[in-house]
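Sequence in, structure out. Go.
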Amino acid sequence: MNNNLYETDYDLWLKQQIEAVEKRDSDALDWDNLAEGLRDVSNFPRNLINDYLMMLLLYLMKTAVQRNVYLDFNSEWMINIARHRILIKKLIKQYPKTLDSYLQTAITPIYAEVLELLLLEKDWKRNKTYDYPKFCPFTIEQILDQNFFPNDQRIALPNHQVSD
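Output:
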C-alpha cells in the first residue's frame, strides 16, 4: 500500500480506497488517512452551512439596520437572502441527521463573526457607523422563512439607528 499516494494523487488514492472497501480488502486500506478523510467528510456539511448562514445573517442584518442604504441594494440583498435560504434548506434536506439540531447552536457563534464584519462597514457618504444588536435578533424560524425580511417592519431591532 502506497501511503504517499494520499498526498501526491488524492483522486487515485481515493479510487483505490473505494475499491478496497468494496472488495472488503482491509489489508489494502490506508487506515490513518481514511480516518482523517472521514473526519473531513463529517465536518463538510457543518462548514458549508456555517458559510451559508454567515452570508444569510449578514444580509438580513444589512436590510434590518442599514435602512437608508437598503433601497439602493434592494434586489441584490433580497436575492442573496433568498439564495442562502435555499442553499441552507437544500443542505438540511441532504444531511438532516447532522444539521437539524446543529443549526440552532450555530447561530450565536456565527452571528458574532457576522457582527465583526458588519462593524467594519461605515456609511462613508454620511461619515456614520451603524449600531448593531450584540446578539442575533432573529429566531431560526425567521432566518429560514422565505417571506421574512427585516425591512418590512415585522421586527423592531434595538439600537438600529445610524449613529455618529
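Check: Residues 64 and 151 are 5 Å apart (CA to CA). The longest helix spans residues 31-65.
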